[in-house]
Write a structure and sequence with these properties.
It is a single chain. The chain is α/β, with parallel strands linked by helices. The protein contains 16 helices and 16 strands. The longest helix is centred in the middle third of the chain and has 23 residues, at about 220-240. Strand 11 (about 330-335), helix 11 (about 345-350) and strand 12 (about 355-360) form a beta-alpha-beta unit. It is elongated and about 90 Å long. The chain has an 8-stranded mixed β-barrel with strand order 5-6-7-11-12-13-14-15, surrounded by 7 helices. It has a 3-stranded antiparallel beta sheet with strand order 1-2-3, with helices on one face. Helix 8 crosses helix 9. It starts with a helix and ends with a helix. It binds 2-phosphoglycolic acid. The site of 2-phosphoglycolic acid (PGA) has 7 residues, from loops. Its cofactor is Mg(2+). Pathway: Carbohydrate degradation; glycolysis; pyruvate from D-glyceraldehyde 3-phosphate: step 4/5. Belongs to the enolase family. InterPro entries: Enolase, Enolase_C, Enolase_N.
Length: about 475
């Protein structure tokens, strides 16, 4: 083909002329840069391939990373493959091969992406998130998504979402808000982990997390400052009381002193808040993760004791009494998963008391059917959204809508074995969740989310609104 034929085939002369004219009209100070940007925009992005690889998450366990290539750029995303409680649908793909990486490898998921998913998405416009997610779901033959695996689905879906925002030349949170059809201006209140227990730490504390909510901050930046200062005072307090070998941290970055009761942990945090000077401006939350210590119909508060006293077994009604007492003694405003994942009856009984926000984690599994039932029966009044239990970005936005329509609180959450992908920060703003839970103000995989929110707040400037005192209602009012 001659040069002339090539120019004619691709209409290059006309396109270059248009770009030059546009540069002149705009009086572009750097015409070369202007013309190259103009030409780039003239070529729409299409997905050219999707490549996956196995990386390691914050626990040192395998996770899926995806590189979604378009004709213009490469967009990376990763998704944790934290497992769901036994017997539930929201599972991730781990390899059938059990000898490698303690049976945690995700090479099968990587292969599915490189083969099936890539082939299905090639040629698609990355701005069409709904179509992309539908194509991923269509590949998934079985109802419970075990054809592909949540980890594989979500990593691809997030990478496409990042590619879509790049093509639109808007920030990721804005692109997500566009997918929902809303504006994106609400910065969430962070539920910052300060003490770890349960299965996330080797101490005797039965519950998984104690968190602080800086609802009295004027903005997200101040919320993180309050969280960080309180966290560091807590470290000193724990060291003074239990010795310097007591402030090791758990899987979400919270300290893990060898305390054994919930009130002992809350007392430590109250002293830290006081020492930091934030009395009244920081509220408390706990994630009980009660499924982990429910034995039959009883809850074993001594499930991590080497020797049990026999006094640790509590009925669900005893637990209701314990929680009610805690709500009256402490500024405790949110309790996550207070009962076993299938104990709908007591969760409802406790929620109906209206003592605090009751967050459904294992109870809901971010699953639309379980959420529907919980809304109808008023089994809880808030959703913790773990996107890798849902599968794709559009499905995640759907369950957020379900929760908002029910006037629930919405807490976008990380996973305890997480990657350094900060997507959930943009998701929390784009979906106007009002709350985000991303661990402690320490550990890289936690900070990547909080730091992204600091950037978003700076970018939004005076348009940004910190959810603050509206942390529970921000979701339903926007
Ligand atoms: P998980 O816990 O990822 O271990 O389920 C996360 C959380 O609930 O904070």
């Amino acid at each position: 083909m001659s040069v002339q034929e090539y120019l004619e085939k691709h209409l290059l002369s006309r396109k270059i002329e248009e770009a030059v004219n546009a540069a002149v009209r705009a009086k572009a100070p750097d015409p070369v840069l202007f013309i190259s940007t103009h030409m780039r925009r003239a070529a729409p992005a299409v997905i050219t391939s999707v490549r996956a690889r196995q990386i390691l998450d914050s626990r040192g366990e395998p996770a899926v990373e995806v590189a979604l290539h378009t004709n213009k750029a490469v967009h990376r995303a990763s998704a944790a493959a934290a497992d769901a409680p036994e017997g539930t649908a929201a599972d991730a793909t781990r390899d059938a091969e059990k000898r490698k990486l303690l049976a945690r490898a995700v090479a099968d998921a990587v292969q599915v992406i490189n083969d099936k998913v890539s082939e299905a998405l090639v040629g698609m416009d990355p701005q069409q998130q709904a179509q992309i997610d539908q194509a991923i779901m269509d590949l998934d033959k079985a109802h419970h998504k075990d054809g592909i695996g949540m980890n594989a689905m979500l990593a691809v879906s997030i990478a496409a979402c990042k590619a879509g925002s790049a093509e639109k030349e808007v920030p990721l949170y804005k692109h997500i808000a566009d997918l929902v059809g809303k504006s994106a201006t609400t910065l969430p209140v962070p539920a910052i982990t300060v003490i770890n227990g349960g299965t996330h730490a080797g101490n005797r504390l039965p519950i998984q997390e104690i968190m602080i909510l800086p609802v009295g901050a004027k903005n997200f930046e101040e919320a993180m400052q309050m969280g960080s200062e309180t966290y560091h005072h807590l470290k000193d307090i724990i060291s003074e009381k239990y010795g310097p070998d007591s402030y090791n941290i758990g899987e979400d970055g919270g300290f893990a002193p060898n305390i054994s009761s919930i009130s002992e942990g809350l007392d430590l945090v109250i002293v830290a808040i006081d020492r930091a000077g934030y009395n009244g401006r920081i509220k408390l939350a706990i994630d009980v993760a009660a499924t982990d210590f429910c034995i039959g119909k009883k809850y074993d508060l001594e499930f991590k004791f080497a020797e049990k006293s026999g006094q640790g077994f509590k009925t669900a009604d005893d637990m209701i009494e314990i929680y009610s007492q805690l709500c009256s003694e402490y500024p405790l405003v949110s309790i996550e998963q207070p009962f076993d994942k299938d104990d709908w009856e007591h969760s409802k009984k406790f929620t109906t008391l209206e003592l605090c926000q009751v967050v459904g984690d294992d109870l809901l599994m971010s699953d639309p059917d379980r959420i529907k039932r919980a809304v109808n029966e008023y089994t809880c009044n808030a959703l913790v959204l773990k996107a890798n239990q849902v599968g794709t970005v559009m499905e995640a936005l759907e369950v957020v809508k379900q929760a908002k329509d029910a006037h629930w609180g919405v807490m976008v959450s990380h996973r305890s074995g997480d990657t350094d992908d900060s997507f959930i920060a943009d998701l929390a703003v784009g979906a106007a969740a009002g709350q985000i839970k991303a661990g402690a103000p320490c550990r890289g995989e936690c900070l990547t989310k909080y730091n992204q929110l600091l950037r978003i707040e700076e970018e939004l400037g005076s348009d940004g609104v910190y959810a603050g005192g509206n942390w529970r209602t921000a979701a339903s009012s926007s």
